[in-house]
Write a structure and sequence with these properties.
single chain, alpha/beta, Ribosomal Protein S5, domain 2, 2 domains, 9-stranded mixed beta sheet
């Protein structure tokens, strides 16, 4: 017979009050967009990203914004207090409510929290702190799991919002045990090119809001700047009348943006032509080159092909296929296109498949009044051969 444990009082779910955990705006609109309106009291947020992408910068700016209305404790296990202060000075941040502790011991950080009771606790980073309750070195599976567990328990008990910075592995996933992402309430990922361009903040998990939200920033001289109109930034330098360039209305999560796809094709005498791809999946571009040769008669076996998405944007959307194909053929034939927007997935048999979010893409493209729109759909083009003809390009002999 199993002994009964202590009795617990149950509650009717519809009668449980949620007023104790209101959302608190962060002061940064693009972050609020991703969070769903701001921080929820007692929530734990994991922010991942590659080294140098701007995780610490973003959270320091976020801390300064929150500290204007409340109190923030930044626990840095990677930098000294003076180094954090130097970075804050460079960013022009001066928030009286922002305190810093340079210590990697979980117990010491929690002790400082009990003394100060911050509204927001930032741990930079979860892979560099350790707890006496676990064995192993910092960054190990056990240490990361146990350290995170201590901070999560503190957040739920006190209502303090906890933000954990997470490093990523070579494969692009957040380092540490996979259970770390299951333990926290929100997982956000900051991505972009380290040498410039846009930074995209994505929500991969959000217990208190919708996922796949995207916030857009640029890295400036004094930190990350919000970009409320990404399309305007991405196509501001678009040069009409140049061959090898096509606009593509991408859909990132719940947000539509217009970007520019460029291609440059030049003849080569090398036995192995070069294929340079930036911002796209290289294997998919190689597949498009094969389809262009087989079903559109475009000869590329003796040419170097360079494809780039302007602005440091990385695209995984298969609907970009048609824009890439048109840009490549435009460059091959050195035939400039009018201001053109295109989207559609290209199959291995040369068919153009209908892309998702067609109406949203059309609406975003229309903002820039393109002279030509090439897309699949009812009454639209159905094959790559037809798409080239509609764009004024000449298919080769198949």
């Amino acid at each position: 017979m199993v002994a009964a444990g202590p009795s617990l009082q149950t509650q009717v779910l519809s009668e449980v009050s949620v007023s104790g955990k209101p959302r608190t705006p962060t002061g940064i609109g693009e972050v609020d967009r991703v969070l769903g309106g701001g921080f929820v009291g007692g929530s734990v947020v994991l922010v991942g990203g590659e080294p140098g992408v701007g995780k610490s910068t973003l959270l320091l700016q976020l801390a300064a914004q929150v500290a204007d209305q409340g109190s923030v404790l930044l626990a840095s296990a990677e930098e000294s207090a003076s180094q954090v202060a130097l970075r804050a000075t460079r960013l022009g941040l001066n928030a009286p409510g922002l305190r810093v502790v340079a210590d990697g011991r979980v117990e010491a950080v929690l002790s400082a929290c009990v003394e100060n009771m911050p509204d927001l606790l930032i741990i930079d980073s979860i892979q560099t702190v350790t707890t006496a309750d676990a064995e192993g070195s910092a960054g190990g599976v056990v240490q990361v799991r146990e350290s995170a567990g201590r901070f999560i328990e503190f957040a739920k008990r006190t209502g303090t919002v906890v933000a954990l910075v997470g490093h990523v592995t070579k494969e692009g996933s957040i380092a540490g045990p996979k259970t770390l992402e299951h333990m926290v309430d929100v997982v956000m990922y900051l991505e972009g090119e380290g040498d410039g361009g846009l930074r995209l903040l994505r929500s991969l998990k959000n217990r208190y809001g919708s996922v796949n939200q995207v916030g857009v920033f640029t890295m400036g001289d004094v930190g990350l700047d919000e970009v409320p109109d990404p399309s305007g930034v991405l196509v501001e330098a678009h040069r009409a009348g140049a061959s090898g360039t096509v606009l593509f209305p991408m859909v990132e999560g719940r947000r539509s943006m217009l970007c520019e796809v460029q291609a440059l094709v030049v003849q080569t005498v090398l036995p192995q032509p070069r294929r340079s791809v930036k911002g796209l999946d290289g294997a998919r571009v190689h597949q498009l080159l094969a389809v262009l040769e087989r079903h559109a008669g475009v000869q590329l076996v003796k040419a170097d092909v360079h494809v780039n998405v302007v602005g440091g944007v990385r695209l995984k959307d298969p609907a970009v296929d048609l824009a890439v194909a048109l840009a490549i053929v435009s460059s091959v034939q050195d035939r400039p296109l009018p201001l053109t927007a295109a989207w559609g997935e290209v199959g291995l048999t040369g068919e153009i498949r209908t892309a998702t979010h067609g109406e949203r893409r059309q609406e975003e493209a229309s903002r820039f009044d393109p002279e030509l729109v090439v897309r699949p759909g009812k009454g639209g083009i159905r094959t790559l051969h037809e798409a080239l003809l509609e764009a004024g390009l000449t298919p080769g002999r198949r």
